[in-house]
Amino acid sequence: NALSEYLELQKMVEPSSKDYQTVAKKLTSVDLTKIEDKSAVKAFKSMQDNVLSMAAEPMFKEGKEELDDGNYDKAAELLQQSVDYGYITDRSLYNLAKAYQNLGKAKKAVKYFDMVVEKFPDSDLVDYAKGRADTLRDDAAGTGEGEDSDAEGTGEESGEESAEN
Question: How far is the C-alpha of 143 from the C-alpha of 158, rounded, in Å?
């Protein structure tokens, strides 16, 4: 039960990021429409927000390591969860887009590259994000297959910073 696991998590002196990730997954699967007491729903959402924020940044870091190691499926999964849990930074969005690009999921990659540009216009990653999104759009237009063509990513561009933080 998600609530009992959360309470156990609170008792731990130093819960690990994996503990938070485990509880976060369970908390996000709870159907709040079945809870009639509005104050209970509010308390649950507060607890959920707390756990998700504690799980999100470590998930980003783990996802970035998977991306660097070329494990794009696992990277996309972890980075997507991190973003879904509220860890939305220029680097989290950019790395998620790169993972999707390397999986050949151009439409999703473009979505997240565009989000970097829109949400973080002063980021040092904006030019890279624009360039990658434009390349993917051009590739999709050239193939006539739409934005989910099988175009693989090219890896790091020369001079491109690693988006770790």
Answer: 25
Tell me the residue range of the domain where 105 lies: 88-165
In DSSP notation, 5-62 reads: HHHHHHH-SS--HHHHHHHHHHHHT--GGG---HHHHHHHHHHHHHHHHHHHHHHHHH
Q: For the chain, what is the domain count?
A: 1
Query: 92 in a domain, yes or no?
Result: yes
pTM to 2 decimal places: 0.74
**Is residue 78 a part of any domain in this protein?**
no
User: SS3 for 116?
Assistant: helix
Residue 159 is which amino acid? Answer: G
Q: Is residue 19 within 8 Å of residue 52, measured between CB atoms?
A: no
Q: Is residue 135 part of a domain?
A: yes
What are the pLDDT tens digits along the chain (165 aa)? 777 777 776 666 466 778 888 888 888 888 999 989 999 899 989 988 888 988 999 999 999 999 999 999 999 999 999 999 999 999 999 999 999 999 999 999 999 999 999 999 999 999 999 999 999 999 888 765 544 444 444 444 434 444 555
